[in-house]
Write a structure and sequence with these properties.
Structural class: mainly beta
CATH class of the largest domain: Mainly Beta
Number of helices: 1
CATH architecture of the largest domain: Sandwich
Helix content: under 10%
Low-confidence stretches: 2-10, 92-98
Distance between the termini: 63 Å
Strand content: 35-45%
Oligomer: single chain
Mean pLDDT: 83
Shape: globular
Number of strands: 17
Order of helices and strands: HEEEEEEEEEEEEEEEEE
């Protein structure tokens, strides 16, 4: 019986390597900059041509920590789970943070006139795997919302606007999902977003 178990274990398919959900910000040569102010090395033979900035992808890491992009897979691990050895420029960890390394980015959002007045507005970022209720915005008036987002200095984070679910995420004037917005970790940075439409409202 033990013999049979050992044989089964030896012939079992190898455990697939983990993949990670990331949002590319830029790709040059063998370097892939992703949301959060990090840079990954691309695997040999991988080119930047199919990588669209702001459009989420999944990356797999080889034994040398080099990344190979794949179509987006919602079941992938968050970028915070990527081993630090895989980064050319590793992100700062929360325990390293202090007030001198953090900046405040102001995000101002204008919503369509047909937005239900009782709905809350949220910022959804790739840091949470695009959780639709990640950060609730402060209401300024019926159509304007504001968020003071704390980021590591010089970090960048991609985000979208929702009303609390994937079914209520923002859309552009053509009813398509727009490219992710980018918050840049510069002192006194300010991002303005005009939501053209919602996925669930014609």
């Amino acid at each position: 019986m033990i013999h049979a178990l050992l044989l089964a274990a030896a012939t079992a398919a190898p455990t697939p390597a983990p993949v990670y959900r990331v949002v590319p910000l830029a790709c040059t040569g063998d370097r892939l900059a992703i949301g959060g102010g990090s840079v990954l090395r691309l695997a040999d033979g991988v080119r930047c041509l199919a990588i669209v900035p702001g459009r989420a992808i999944t990356v797999a890491l080889d034994a040398d920590g080099r990344a190979t992009p794949h179509p987006y897979d919602r079941t992938g691990e968050p970028p915070s789970a990527i081993p630090r050895t895989a980064f050319v420029l590793a992100p700062a960890v929360e325990s390293d943070a202090d007030d001198a390394t953090m900046v405040t980015v102001t995000i101002d959002v204008t919503v369509p006139a047909r937005t239900p007045p009782t709905d809350d507005i949220y910022v959804s970022t790739e840091r949470s795997g695009w959780s639709p209720t990640e950060i609730r915005m402060d209401r300024v008036d019926a159509r304007h919302y504001r968020l003071a987002l704390r980021l590591h200095r010089d970090a960048r984070v991609a985000f979208r606007i929702t009303r609390g679910s994937y079914a209520t995420i923002e859309r552009d004037a053509a009813r398509a999902l727009p490219p992710a917005h980018i918050a840049d970790g510069k002192p006194d940075s300010h991002v303005t977003v005009d939501v053209a439409a919602w996925a669930d409202i014609d």
